[in-house]
TrEMBL record:
<dbReference type="InterPro" id="IPR000944">
    <property type="entry name" value="Tscrpt_reg_Rrf2"/>
</dbReference>
<dbReference type="InterPro" id="IPR036390">
    <property type="entry name" value="WH_DNA-bd_sf"/>
</dbReference>
<dbReference type="InterPro" id="IPR036388">
    <property type="entry name" value="WH-like_DNA-bd_sf"/>
</dbReference>
<dbReference type="Pfam" id="PF02082">
    <property type="entry name" value="Rrf2"/>
</dbReference>
<protein>
    <submittedName>
        <fullName>Rrf2 family transcriptional regulator</fullName>
    </submittedName>
</protein>
Length: 153
């Protein structure tokens, strides 16, 4: 099954950006997101359009957060990505003639709609600040004295 990991990847990048004093380049973010810089620029451009990030050109330029971590939820980021499809499960045929398949579609569609609504609601309850706080709790538990905010194992 193909997974859409854009939400996870962009949240990862945004938290790295929150830890930076200055701007962070597309190339550095691409390393965090395990992708290429063109994908980062395209994704960040969409986030810039809604005011979540801003870009700085020239030497020492890059991307910066332009939002309050307390005010932005995972739902905001999910919506900014175009509300990607959450489930790979779907109906075999959308408008079947078979009454059995109609019954199956009805049950599956209702369950999937309810599950998606619950997930999207819960995404709206988690802020970027909460993710940042969780990261800092994990970092302090590790006992890191170096201030390293990279992907240490």
């Amino acid at each position: 099954m193909i997974r859409d990991s854009r939400l996870s990847a962009i949240l990862h990048a945004l938290l790295h950006m929150a830890e930076q004093e200055g701007p962070i380049t597309s190339e550095a973010l691409a390393r965090c997101m395990n992708t290429n810089a063109a994908v980062v620029r395209r994704t960040m451009s969409g986030l810039r359009q809604i005011g979540l990030v801003r870009s700085e050109k020239g030497h020492g330029g890059g991307w910066r957060l332009a939002c309050d971590l307390q005010a932005v939820t995972l739902r905001d980021i999910y919506d900014a990505l175009g509300a990607p499809q959450i489930f790979a499960i779907g109906n075999k045929t959308e408008n079947p003639a078979c009454l059995v398949e109609q019954a199956v579609n009805s049950a599956l569609s209702k369950a999937l709609q309810e599950a998606e609504a619950l997930l999207v609601q819960r995404l709206g309850n988690v802020t970027l600040a909460a993710l940042s706080a969780d990261f800092h709790r994990r970092l302090s538990t590790r006992g890191s004295q170096s201030g390293d905010t990279t992907h240490a194992a």
